[in-house]
Amino acid sequence: MNANSDAVLNYHRRSKHSLQRYANGPASLDWEDQPNVFRSFAECETLKLSPPGAERAVLFADLAQPRGAETLNKHTLSLLLELAFGLSAWKQFGVDRWSLRCNPSSGNLHPTEVYVINTDLQLFAAGVYHYQVYQHSLEQRCVFTQPVENKSVFIGLSSVHWREAWKYGERAFRYCQHDIGHALGGLRYAAAVLGWKIELITHCSDAELSLLLGVNRAQDFKADEREFADILCRIDTQSVSQPLDLTSLIHVANRGDWRGKAESLHQYHLYKWDVINAVTQATEKPQTAPFKAKTVTSLANVQSTPPKTATAIIRQRRSAQHFNPKATLASADFYQILMATLPDKFPFDVWVMEDKIHFFIFVHRVEGLEPGLYALPRNIDKLSALQSATAEKFAWQCVSAALPLYKLLPANCRNAAKTLSCHQAIASDSAFSLAMVAEFSTTIETAAWHYRYLFWEAGLIGQVLYLQAEAAGVRGTGIGCYFDDSVHDVLGLTDEKFQSVYHFTVGTPLDDNRLQTLPAYAHLQAENTHANA
Ligand SMILES: Cc1cc2nc3c(=O)[nH]c(=O)nc-3n(C[C@H](O)[C@H](O)[C@H](O)COP(=O)(O)O)c2cc1C
Q1: Ligand 1 centre distance from Cα of residue 371 (Å)
Q2: Cα separation of 216 and 156, whole Å?
């Protein structure tokens, strides 16, 4: 075990919540001084994107089927960014008003930032652009002053750890990684609406990616509000794919004309979380060989009744805050939702890393299925490892011909699910909730930076669950707050071979009628009207 793996294990252990104490977090919060969820760069040019709200006829159920790809132009890129990361609505309660996005985020704090790197001169000037979510515009951070051979458009994702740590303290690093996984999922679904794929670039180091995104430029950011580079993807419009020369792209970015300074997100920085800095450093990815591309079967998106377009499902995605504790989920929907999470199905072509997440499912109210604890090994090769790591009393009775779904224990596990998920009723009033359990210690021992992959994979699966639930006419919610070792106790896990890294719940939502829902981008229409008056 090397020092980085040790640092990761130390972080993971101390960021656990337990029934006795929550992980270290701020003793008090100044709600008046919440971090701004919209990052802007001052002193750089802004490029207006096409108006948000464009529709496409493709049904959500058909999203995974092969289709003709749309041309990559300013309109289609605008739609991609909106559907993946843009605003989906505003909510209002009394004087309080907050925005929601197509991608979810723990605490709605949105630590993920998005960059577009363009080398296609037919699209717009070559350079690095920051996506400004509120304005639905691109801020030009870097103008490339040297030519780049091939024409490509890349999307880069980074995280402002501070945004999340402001509320969640030490556990925040985990949530930032989850949010990256959700964002990657959002991007893959949005690309599919346009008939495109997303190629994850896996060989570059975080240091190279920081340079490319400009997040290494300390002078452009307030020290506590730095961004950390996470993911680079290339948009694949399925036309002739050009070879990628990342080294020369990074060289061009390094020599480019950089502009702008990140505006402050927050006035005070009362708390410092050194362990987040330590785990950030310990999980920094070096340059590696690329992971091999993966092909998937296209089936498995849930069919809505009546059928709904993919754009409608993506824009209507919300987290349920309450569930109807009497509603039952149709068994076909339950199986379809789970089927869509299997690694050989769309959208997991984007996940070229190993599949290391398995489910333990608390079934509360699913038609035709006895309530109890179930398991779904997402990689069937890991069945026996899961069996031998968990409680001996589990029956492991296979209950489906279509899915590797096993009944472990018949039980009313509503109270257990609620208690384990930090006493949240969303885990017990739903139709089912689940723990995503990761192959853990061997992963961390192999490479400490794979720690982030476990949370990205869980976030990506979470995004699938969110959208498939919407399509089935129910709703999901990601659950980052759970008592780690109590979950392990219930499952009989006695060492760190497997660890729970994320929870999720799905059921029939109860809407809070006190909340008003407002359109996502009315402020842009108002600004346009004002400008044209
Ligand atoms: C990683 C992650 C963890 C979350 N954890 C919880 C949780 O423990 N409890 C909860 O009620 N909601 C949780 N949520 C839901 C967020 O609060 C929600 O995504 C956010 O408020 C934005 O709302 P929306 O999903 O409706 O857009 C979580 C979401 C994510 C992405």
Answers
A1: 25
A2: 14
